[in-house]
Amino acid sequence: MKQKLVAQDEKKKDREKMTNSSGTTITATFDLQSVLQLPSGSASLLYYKRKLILHNCTVYEDSKRAFCFVWLETDGRRGSSEIGTILYCYLSGLPATVKEVILYSDSCTGQNRNQCITAVLLHAVQVLHIDVIELKFLVPGHTQMECDSMHSAIEHAQRYQKTYVPNDWLNVMKSARRRHPYQTEQLSFGDFYNLRALAKDLLSNRKTNSSGKSVNWMEIRCIRVSKASPGVVFYKTDFSEPEYSRIEQGPCPSTVLQPLYETQLPFSKLKKQDLLSLCSSCVIPSLYHDF
Question: Residue 121 and which of 3, 42, 198, 234 are 20 to 30 A apart at CA?
């Protein structure tokens, strides 16, 4: 409970900071929605058949702007490289007036709290117009965030609709909120970056901080990177800590983001058989058979 209250105080301070900085600071939450399925509808056969999976990573700003980044299972998985790529796409699209970004996420190690995400943030402050990026991990069990409301709104909007192709889901997302509709973007396999390779280049030191103490990434609660301190990862293991610890990386080499995938990803033969059977039984209308 104490950690939860400290996290709430952190959010309050961030909002005050955004208010006092003349719009140069953005605070946002992000999370990956539960898997969406294609096709979806009320036909009973759909319950027993394997379906295509659609992923949706949502970003919600304190300014009420909200974004949906969507991709099929054949274009990418749900790993740290995919999530980090989406964060980089989001940061790249921010106005040039934004100089500081504060992000909140859950503490999922495989997707958020890891070295791939740290590397892409370290890269972003060096090549983008943003000066400072902070990523704060909420305490497990207390991870309800503003972006979670997007997930429920999307599921509610789709409740009585049928979806056969990704564009159907995108239309559902756009209609989920009438005022300030969610902004949507569909990614393909060629859009994702290999952040493991980036981490290998940028994070030569991952185990020891500047005080000589070992770094336990599972305990990190906040990460901060800055254009003014290239090659340095600042971190806290508790929100109440007065000062950041430092992980020194040395001079930052010039890096180029490498593609994660060269081709689309395969899916199982059994899933293909099920999808073809849904086509032959006309549960999937003929208009969508080519897809």
Answer: 3
